[in-house]
Write a structure and sequence with these properties.
Blueprint lengths: L8 H10 L10 H13 L4 E3 L5 E5 L11 E6 L21 E4 L2 E4 L6 H15 L8 E6 L7 H5 L9 E4 L7 E6 L1 E10 L2 E3 L4 E9 L17 H15 L3 E7 L10 E8 L3 H18 L8 E6 L5 E3 L1 H13 L3 E5 L7 E13 L3 E10 L2 H17 L3 E4 L13 H14 L4 E5 L5 H7 L4 E4 L4 E2 L7 E3 H16 L5
């Protein structure tokens, strides 16, 4: 399959075009300029708010003026992750897409189909002259991935439609009518640098090759967390030997399951070979535990030159124990919707930052606000007991399902008519912007759907090409069957 043969051609044309435009979260100025130029080129009313959200309006096609106004919505930022052996600057370099059988992926980086395919779909509809629809408002929001700040900043009155179709879902044939709310809890350990002994064995130990993925969609798939695996091994060493922790680094994004983590440590020279044996045993244990979900898991240990300074041993000990105690993964399943994760937490990143601090970012999600608060307090408690300074953000609301939604009925009936099967109606554990939209526009009737994506928020991100055409056909049929005003 050649890229020029991908269908629908207009959607893949615009997807390839926006892949040339850098759009990391919080650095969306280039894609905002692209959208404004697009609106001007097509003589469409285009407005931008203070946050950078862009709204492009398109009048109804002749004969469809009496249909209710529909808002199509996607976010324009993308998660920027790459394999460690890939050179790529997300601020300047285009995403290089490749066709791999029935999948579209990128060369060693995230693809950006989350949510670039939604953006491309809106652009294809806006540019088309042969598609029937009622009045349309295409909303492109900023910074969904790192804080939902575009949706938070959206003001009442910016949009006028009362039906919203979110195009940020990742399973074709599934219609989503609810999502989890979430919040980040951040802990900081302040340490005293101490002189590192020079007659010790210094080594760098790393956990690599993990699958990673989205900390909402993929949290129930049994995937390993690199920060937890590394911390587990370091805690074992600290219980057996005099261990100096000099450096530690793992994970990057609050909404991604960390794939890699590493630490620079030292033990007395006489334990040099014992550490290597310990790691071999530990690796064998992990390969047995994660034989199904982490087939590419690997550990590495390399000798290093002595460091001048290390983290004081008391802080290092408290840090390791607190991280060990912090919950990671699924905490509770929904009692109302079979198979839906209700509450979870992700130990997202560990970084050394200025001021002799170790900063740990975690992310809690739940479809029940009280349960999310409980999960955040549990994480806070573990870190507070370890002596860290802890803060939990205000977070974002969930989206309560409405099974009686009129636009849901249109979407279900359309899918059955087109494909002869009943779509699945579900809620999702990931966070969507819909909950925030509902706060600003309480009368909105909403549904979310999209093509099939896998490996989002990781360099393994890929999009199943045949599902894009089904998603496109479904969306166009929904638009022409929207109820009248």
């Amino acid at each position: 399959m050649n890229k020029k043969d991908l269908k629908p051609a207009s959607v893949f044309y615009y997807f390839e075009e926006i892949c040339q435009v850098p759009r990391p979260s919080k650095r969306e100025e280039k894609i905002i300029a692209y959208l404004k130029a697009f609106g001007e080129k097509h003589a469409l009313e285009t407005t931008t708010d203070e946050a950078g959200n862009v709204l492009i309006k398109k009048p109804a096609t002749p004969g469809k003026e009496n249909l209710r106004t529909v808002i199509l919505q996607s976010h324009i930022d993308m998660v920027c992750e790459k394999n460690s052996d890939v050179e790529h600057d997300f601020l300047t370099d285009p995403i290089e897409t490749v066709v791999d059988g029935e999948w579209l992926r990128a060369k060693g980086t995230t693809l950006g189909a989350d949510n670039g395919i939604g953006v491309a779909t809106e652009l294809a509809i806006l540019a088309a002259t042969d598609i029937e629809h009622g009045p349309l408002e295409c909303l492109f929001t900023v910074d969904e991935e790192t804080g939902l700040t575009g949706a938070f900043a959206l003001k009442p009155g910016f949009m006028t439609g009362d039906i919203l179709i979110n195009l940020d879902s990742e399973d074709e044939g599934e219609l989503f009518i609810g999502c989890a709310g979430g919040a980040n809890t951040t802990a900081e350990f302040t340490y005293q640098p101490v002189a590192a002994p020079q007659d010790y064995f210094y080594f760098r130990v790393a956990v690599k090759g993990l699958t990673g993925g989205h900390s909402g969609d993929d949290i129930n798939k049994g995937r390993a967390n690199a920060n937890k695996l590394l911390n587990r091994f370091l805690t074992q060493l600290a219980s057996k030997y005099t261990l100096y922790l000099c450096e530690i680094d793992g994970g990057n994004l609050h909404n991604a399951i960390p794939r890699e983590a590493q630490a620079l440590c030292a033990v007395p020279m006489q334990h040099k070979e014992s550490v290597r044996v310990d790691l071999n045993i530990y690796t064998a244990e992990l390969e047995n535990e994660y034989a199904v979900t982490e087939p590419n898991l690997r550990t590495e240990l390399s000798s290093e030159s002595p460091c001048k300074e290390a983290i004081d041993m008391a802080t290092a000990r408290h840090f390791l124990r607190a991280v060990y105690a912090v919950h990671n993964g699924v905490y509770a399943m929904s009692q109302d919707i079979p198979g839906l994760v209700e509450t979870s937490s992700n130990l997202a990143s560990i970084k050394q930052v200025e001021g002799n601090k170790i900063k740990i970012v975690t992310s809690q999600r739940s479809s029940i606000l009280s349960s999310r608060k409980d999960m955040s307090e549990m994480i806070r408690s573990a870190f507070l007991l370890g002596g860290a300074e802890v803060t939990t953000g205000d977070g974002y609301p969930g989206w309560k399902p409405n099974p009686a939604s009129p636009v849901l009925k249109v979407a279900v009936d359309s899918y059955k008519k087109l494909f002869g099967v009943e779509p699945k109606v579900k809620a999702i554990h990931a966070g969507l912007e819909c909950g925030l939209f509902l706060e600003k526009y309480p009368s909105l009737d909403m549904v979310s759907f999209g093509p099939t994506l896998r490996g989002v928020h990781s360099p393994d991100e890929r999009m199943l090409i045949p599902t894009v055409d089904k998603f496109w056909r479904h969306l166009l049929d929904v638009l022409v069957n929207i109820p009248t005003k």
